[in-house]
Amino acid sequence: xxxxxxxxxxxxxxxxxxxxxxxxxxxxxxxxxxxxxxxxxxxxxxxxxxxxxxxxxxxxxxxxxxxxxxxxxxxxxx
Length: 78
Fold this sequence. Notes:
The protein is of the alpha+beta class. The protein has a domain at 1-31. 37% of the residues lie in helices and 24% in strands. It is built from three helices and three strands. It has helices spanning 2-11, 42-46, 51-64, and strands at 21-27, 30-36, 69-73. The radius of gyration is 12 Å and the shape is globular.
């Protein structure tokens, strides 16, 4: 459910919505959502000084009722 909500939010702000992929993972300390987008959309998802990424974390955390870790994965760096 959280992965679907994050995917929906991110698809609305990127230029390449078909490239958005969210992978949920369970950790000992909570839930992790790995977000992959087209490299051209990376700046849109992060935003100035990380504002957009922080807002996405806040909204998803409010939906879940607890903090959720969201990692934006840069597919160009290996």
